[in-house]
Amino acid sequence: MTGWLDVHAHYLTDHYAAACTAAGHGQPDGMPGLPSWSAKSALDVMDANGIAAAVLSISSPGVHFGDHQLIADQAARELAEHVNDAGAALVADHPERFGLSASLPLPDVDGALHELARAYDELHTDAVALKTHYHGRYLSDPAFAPVLAELDAREAVVTLHPTSPPGWECTALGRPRPMIEFLFDTTRCVVDLILSGTLACHPRIRWIIPHAGAVLPALAHRAAFVSTLTGEGADVPAALGSLYYDLAGTPVPVALKGLRELAAPERFLYGSDYPFTPAEAVTSLADALRRTHALHDARLDTAPGSPAARLFPRLTDTQISS
User: Fold this and answer.
1) 160 and 208 in contact (C-beta within 8 Å)?
2) CA of 183: how far to CAs of 229, 236, 270, 289, 307, in Å?
3) Secondary structure, 3-state, 185-238
4) Cβ atoms 101, 131 nearer than 8 A
5) What residue stretches are annotated with the Amidohydrolase-related domain (predicted)?
6) Whose CA is closest to 161, among 232, 103, 87?
7) Which of 14, 36, 135, 240 has the highest CB neighbour count under 10 A?
8) Order of strands across the sheet with 51-57?
9) Residues of the chain falling short of pLDDT 50
10) How would DSSP label each residue in 55-103?
11) Which residues on neighbouring strands pair with residue 269, listed in sequence order?
12) Alpha-carbon torsion 279, 186, 163, 4, what sign?
């Protein structure tokens, strides 16, 4: 089936939604509420918008709702196992239409390593979903090094996703954090991965950065310049050019133009953000992408040789038709 591959699509189960609500995340990140989701509704949206397949992940707030005390860790391990099993079942039911980006119960490193191995070796996940930080600990935290090393060893595709940053109570000014805070937290995380050397230490991880690179196009050269003054000097723009970017959110009319200054079009991937972006908005945003000249030389489809096919070979047209 020819069409786009959606690398930024979410799913929820009734159990996961109940767990979120019980933990005080019934209005996640300040949004009005958790959306409903079903495989049928997702497939309907995909069919209506020319989306051949979607890689499903759990969105913010993820699966670990507390600190890293033992009781919270155990609950997070169980919830990660639940959502990953549910995602794998969706893939088994619709192998041509769905992929899975598995969740990890970080900041519980031992639990994350166990679930990472299970996700690959038993569930055959297509990718791994990481949040920008876990209770204020960003991905460059030395404690997370074993997880990143394992992802590197497996040449993992990582779908990065923002969450409410530390101190959002002071910075969000009462507005939902996905409006502004998500974009700055993505930018903070990625710049830190570069300046800390974490990105260079794990060169085989294939990172997908959400929301057309967030604020990275605007701040990349500033980060590079200031880093030379602080002794962290790094070629931030060059490092950013080695990453992949999904186009979820509002990349047109402005953001995509800035992203093209950092990354070549063969680094672009489609993202719907369904169901946190409602079906009607998915359609209007997809139509805008199809109309923009900024994507005239980009390939968002699943055909062999496309960026999506390189990252997700199981979901290429060749595999689907064989």
Assistant:
1) yes
2) 25, 17, 17, 20, 23
3) HHHHHHHHHHHCCHHHHCCCCEEEECHHHCCHHHHHHHHHHHHHHHCCCCCHHH
4) no
5) 6-312
6) 103
7) 240
8) 4-10, 51-57, 98-103, 127-131, 157-161, 206-209, 244-246, 268-269
9) 1, 321-322
10) EEE--TT-S--S-SSHHHHHHHHHHHHHHHHHHHHHHHHSTTTEEEEEE
11) 246
12) positive
Q: Which CATH superfamily is domain 4-321 in?
A: Metal-dependent hydrolases (3.20.20.140)
Closest by alpha carbon to 163, among 193, 191, 139, 135? 135
Per-residue tokens: 242 = 């080695």
Q: Which residues pair with 57 in a beta bridge?
A: 10
User: What's the CA angle centered on 140, arms 135 and 144, to 5 degrees?
Assistant: 70
Which helix (H) or strand (E) element contains residue 161? strand 157-161
What is the pLDDT, as a whole number, of residue 322?
A: 43
Contact partners, residue 145, CB within 8 Å, separation at least 6: none
Beta-bridge partners for 161: 131
pLDDT tens digits, 102-151: 999 999 999 999 999 999 999 999 999 999 999 999 999 999 999 999 99
Contacts 24+ apart (CB under 8 A), 233-240: 234/194, 234/195, 236/191, 236/194, 236/195, 237/262, 239/194, 239/199, 239/200, 240/190, 240/194, 240/213, 240/216
* Structure tokens that stand for 135 in this block: 């209770």
Query: Residue 84: what residue type?
Result: N
SS3 277: coil
Locate tokens 């997702």: which residue?
42
Query: Taking a C-beta distance cutoff of 8 angstroms, is the pair 42, 9 a contact?
Result: yes
3-state secondary structure of 45: helix
Task: Report whether 10 contacts 99 (CB < 8 A).
Answer: no
Output the six-digit token pair for 70.
């033992």
One-letter amino acid for residue 199 of the chain: L
